[in-house]
Amino acid sequence: MPKHNAEVAAVFSKIADLLEIENANPFRVRAYRNAARLIQGLSRDLGEMVERGEDLRDLPGIGEDLSKKIVEILETGHCRFLEQLEKQEPPALTELLQVPGLGPKRVKALWQALQVESLEDLAAAARAGRIRMLPGFGEKTELHILELLTAHLSRIPRVSIAQAAPVAEDLLRLLRSVPGVQEAVVAGSFRRGQETVGDLDLVVTARLDSPVMERFVHHEDVAEIFAQGPTRATVVLRSHLQVDLRVVAAESFGAALHYFTGSKSHNIAIRRRAQGLGLKVNEYGIFRGKERVAGETETAVYAAVGLPYIEPELRENRGEIEAAALGKLPHLVQEEDLRGDLHCHSAASDGHDRLEDLAAAAQARGWEYLAITDHSRALRVANGLDPLRLRRQMDEIDLLNGKLRGFTLLKGCEVDILEDGSLDLPDALLRDLDIVIGAVHSHFDLPRARQTARILKAMDHSAFTFLAHPSGRLIGSRPAMDLDLPRIIRHARERGVFLEVNAQPQRLDLPDIQAQAAKEEGVLLAVNSDAHSRFDFDHLRWGVLQARRGWLEKKDVLNTRSLPELRTLLAQTRR
DNA sequence: GCCGTTTTCGGCCCGACTGTTTTCAGTCG
């Protein structure tokens, strides 16, 4: 089984963990971590790059040694260096590093002195009071470790950004009501629009005498206070979500917001750039010696290092700093750019609303069009439409369009791609539709070659418009299908069809990096709500964020086109 | 382990909070 980017990144992360426990040169550890992060965020397949004879050393942070290790992992599925490390230290130690509060030094000390190799060992040692005996540890640390462990075991995995949003908004309301508070905003991965967030980072500006810190940590939703100082606090909510609060003076707001928005690797790159200019960047501002040269706004922070403002969604150190320096940042698509939605369900299949209610809600959002795309017959659990029912719906849409003014319902269907790659409805019927969405809803576990061939075949159908939720993943519950996605993206370009960025928060599919790869290939993407009721159009907020993270501009998104432009593009997919 | 309009060697981002250290290490973001 050939290895792919994610596996290579996992090997490098594990090496970094084990090296860190070994007390290796921290910069060597960082080199592995940086490489893991780079590879995780790469829009291209390493295996394919190697096949094409590209030099991996052209990737920033990859040199002679790591390049060889990547090739070794891709070709053999193993990494001898990792296996060697695992002979010296139990691989399970890296699991201990996942416990917040336990770092490499403590893990190593616990292992060497008490033979603690797993979470169970750790709990047993703490309960037996053996940890407090170790040098550098004390009674409080021992109790703290037990608490950390309990918190870790009961922790929720990263929550979807859509779930975190109402929590964040409640907290902001609370903070803004505290006397002396000027601004309160969310930073961190939430502000960058990541599909899931591990915690919430809040930045507040307040007068020195504001009781904001006290009010925050003693808020009724707070279950536990992990740390609290005059400017910074970490708490865990009853919902198990961790929240960090940072309070700064107004003059430092931009610097603090920039610092806490991250990402970490973007910040490091900005700081290195600042260093080269004789400047120092921290959360209080940008300094030349003792003199503050910026800090009040993010725009000023970027200007101080000679860059234009960089949108938070781009701050992943995936080329945005270089693009900014060249004046080549993308003008990211916005929700207001959308003229309609090309994927939604009515009560005819598994949606909740009638066509006229969906149309009214869409028109109220200022859109020009909405495609009705109920499921096809194979998806029985969703009450998929057979040819007769779909024909009836098409007639109903014609009638409705006769009454609508300045708005059009498009006739579509989300057709199942069957196991053999054929589509679930007769060709003649599909050709009478405006939009034919191909989608996989079954046989997610076919081998890579068959799964890829199945989808390529479906895309070749003469009526095919775009591929819905191409990876098939459900965040946190179902992994992406094993697919040659670069090949599917290339095929979409050659065949002249489109791909989807599905905005359902549990899907967000294509994900950011793959959406960017499609853009680079010149494939248009439809950012769709996949609404099952008129309220689900709000999902587009998350889809647009994901699209922005993929560097998509208005011109890259199919449903930013006016209806006549859209019809022209749709006609070109037919053959 | 990577990298280079000053470098092929000597650098590599920066500060807050906690606990046990009597002056700072460990961890985190």
Verbal overview:
The mean pLDDT is 92. The radius of gyration is 26 Å and the shape is globular. It is built from 24 helices and 17 strands. Helix 1 runs parallel beside helix 5, helix 13 (253-261) crosses helix 15 and helix 21 (485-495) packs parallel to helix 22 (512-521). The protein folds into 4 domains: 5-153, DNA polymerase beta, N-terminal domain-like (DNA polymerase, domain 1); 159-248, Beta Polymerase, domain 2 (2-Layer Sandwich), CATH 3.30.460.10; 270-325, 2-Layer Sandwich (Beta Polymerase, domain 3); 335-573, TIM Barrel (Alpha-Beta Barrel). The chain has 575 residues and is an alpha/beta fold. A 7-stranded parallel beta sheet has the order 11-12-13-14-15-16-17. A hairpin with a 3-residue loop joins strand 5 (222-228) and strand 6. Helices cover 43% and strands 14% of the residues. The longest helix is centred in the first third of the chain and has 17 residues, at 5-21. The structure holds one DNA strand of 29 nucleotides.
Please outline what is shown here.
The protein is α/β, with parallel strands linked by helices.
Give the helix/strand layout:
Elements: H1 5-21, H2 26-40, H3 46-51, H4 64-76, H5 80-88, H6 93-97, H7 104-114, H8 119-127, H9 139-153, E1 159-160, H10 161-176, E2 181-186, H11 188-192, E3 196-197, E4 199-206, H12 212-217, E5 222-228, E6 232-237, E7 242-248, H13 253-261, H14 264-276, E8 280-282, E9 285-288, E10 291-294, H15 298-304, H16 320-325, E11 340-341, H17 355-364, E12 369-375, H18 387-403, E13 408-416, H19 427-431, E14 435-439, H20 448-459, E15 466-467, H21 485-495, E16 498-502, H22 512-521, E17 525-528, H23 540-549, H24 563-573
Parallel strand pairs: 4-7, 11-12, 12-13, 13-14, 14-15, 15-16, 16-17
Antiparallel strand pairs: 1-3, 2-4, 5-6, 6-7, 8-9, 9-10
This protein binds one DNA strand of 29 nucleotides through residues 25-32, 34-35, 60-66, 100-106, 136-138, 140-141, 144, 188, 199, 201, 226-234, 244, 246, 259-260, 262, 264, 267-272, 274-275, 280-284.
